[in-house]
Amino acid sequence: MNHPPSSGALALIAICRELYAVIDRLDQQAADQVGVSRNDLRALNVLENGPCRAGVLADTLGLTTGSISTLVDRLEKRGLVVRDRDPQDRRAVLIAPTDRLFDELGPLYRQVAVHLANVAEEYSDEELDSALGHLRDVVAAYRSATRESSGG
Q1: Which of 23, 43, 94, 135 is deepest in the core (most CB within 10 A)?
Q2: What does the pLDDT average to over 101-115?
Q3: How far is CA 87 from CA 42, 52, 94, in A?
Q4: What does the alpha-carbon distance between residue 151 and residue 138 come to, in Å, rounded to a whole number?
Q5: Contact in structure between 95 and 83 (CB atoms under 8 Å)
Q6: Those residues with Cβ within 8 angstroms of residue 43's Cβ, 6 or more apart along the chain or in another chain
Q7: Residue 51 pairs with which residues in a beta bridge?
């Protein structure tokens, strides 16, 4: 960018920072609620989509398999995950979330999802498409910055 950002661009940057700060506070509240670190919560967020192997979890979070092993031990002791044999490969182990995880954190995150769903219902199809497009642009900007900072 060779020229100063417009007031609209500055407003977008400011609201993105505000959004990140609010999500950060919500995630800290969730981590505190179940007594885990933020890194552990990041792993739990990945597992929300279903069980996965430790190696996949490590790659997704950018951690070593040794670190993931220790992380899973902590989560297992808290009753938030279990290790199960992979039905496709009995030598492999899947890390799976427990019902306790969803029972404890579900209401906190569900409250946000319900609010967003109610807001979306107020949008016209065109407004919703536009909002989704803007959010995809924001995600792309963060992804790009992540790749650049990691050399990828």
Answers
A1: 43
A2: 93
A3: 25, 12, 9
A4: 20
A5: yes
A6: 57, 61, 68, 71, 72, 75
A7: none
Look up residue 71 and give its two tokens.
């992380």
DSSP per-residue string spanning 59-113: HHHT--HHHHHHHHHHHHHTTSEEEEEETTEEEEEEEEE-HHHHHHHHHHHHHHH
| Residue type, position 52, single letter | C
Q: What is the pLDDT of residue 3?
A: 84
Q: Is 94 exposed, middle or buried (0-12, 13-18, 19+ CB in 10 A)?
A: buried
The answer to whether the CB of 97 falls within 8 A of the CB of 90 is no
pTM greater than 0.70 (yes/no)? yes
b/e code 52-82 from CB counts within 10 Å (16+ = b): bbbeebbeebebeeeebeebbebbeebebbe
- Classify residue 26 by burial, with Cβ atoms within 10 Å: 0-12, 13-18, 19+: middle
In this structure, the number of other CB atoms found within 10 A of the CB of residue 11 comes to 11
Q: Is 35 helix (H, G, I), strand (E, B) or coil?
A: coil
Evaluate whether 35 touches 63 at the Cβ level (below 8 Å). Answer: no
